[in-house]
Amino acid sequence: MRDYRWIILALALVPAALLPATAALGDEEVGLYGGGSIGQSSERFHPSDYGLRAQNTGYQVAAGWRPLDLLAAELNYVDLGRAHSGINYADTDGIGVSALGFLPIPLVDVYGRLGLVNWRADVHAPFSSFHRSGSDLTYGVGAGMHWGSLGARLEYQRYDMSVASTMSLASVGVTWTFL
Asked: Whose CA is closest to 54, among 96, 86, 95, 94?
């Protein structure tokens, strides 16, 4: 397992450092936010590499800044779970940064996501283990609602990882906006 203490520290410090910049904004949907989601991940690695696949529980935690009603930037950690084939398996996770664009629809946040994910797959077989990593495109769509600072999301996100034919996460989550 990789050491993510520095990432957790950054996710905690970034909202605190930017809080004065968003304190003057009056909209509950605009500002710094944090959140998490859980859902169904789908992993299918190329058969020529290691032929692993799975549908698992995946999750992500995120910190973001929404300076305008129509735009946000988000940093997140995603864990897609374990893909397997017999006794061989791969654990895949990553750190991503994305831009979110929102449609101006009252009461509902409908958005698209586009960004990069720095991923790592730890592959284990009976006589060998190895790691693959890279940075690739991530994109998705989602919808959410806000009740004051509390928000709820439903999202589908794809990860175009070079070693996989399919990597995705369909999730439901919550956000909290810090004003």
From this structure: 86
